[in-house]
């Protein structure tokens, strides 16, 4: 399953956006209002839970300076990645496109596609306000 949300323009340079996204504690600012838990485990890992949803642990998987950040599930039980592609526009502006990729059976994919799309849109919208 692959989900992409539309690119968002951020009033920050690609270097600033990259720096923000590679500091896992900053993800708390991007979370939806219905967040139930957010905890930084170490420099590359955090856990969060939304009301009524199971806890998810994300770990930094890849960092490509100034153009890509990839987070992935810390558990192999439900393997997925959350990728932020960062595109510079000029010295003070960039675009960010978030995408989600995971391998799920058809039933699971059908159940989680809507909530994940909403979650990704919220992360993307909140990223505009950093």
Plain-language structure description:
- It is a single chain.
- By secondary structure, the chain is of the alpha+beta class.
- The protein has one domain: Alpha-D-Glucose-1,6-Bisphosphate, Chain A, domain 4 (2-Layer Sandwich), CATH 3.30.530.
- It is built from three helices and eight strands.
- Strands 1, 2, 3, 4, 5, 6, 7 and 8 form an eight-stranded antiparallel β-sheet that branches.
- It is globular, with a radius of gyration of 14 Å.
In short:
By secondary structure, this protein is α+β, with helices and mostly antiparallel strands. It has three helices and eight strands, in the order E-E-H-H-E-E-E-E-E-E-H. The chain has one domain (2-127): Alpha-D-Glucose-1,6-Bisphosphate, Chain A, domain 4.
Helices and strands, with pairings:
Elements: E1 2-4, E2 8-10, H1 14-21, H2 27-30, E3 35-42, E4 45-50, E5 56-64, E6 68-73, E7 80-90, E8 93-102, H3 106-127
Antiparallel strand pairs: 1-8, 2-8, 3-4, 4-5, 5-6, 6-7, 7-8
Could you please say which CATH topology applies here? Answer: Alpha-D-Glucose-1,6-Bisphosphate, Chain A, domain 4
CA-CA gap between termini:
29 Å
DSSP summary: helix tally: 3
Estimate nothing, just give the exact number of structural domains: 1
InterPro entries: START-like_dom_sf (IPR023393)
Protein name: Orotate phosphoribosyltransferase
GO molecular function: glycosyltransferase activity
Keywords: Glycosyltransferase, Transferase
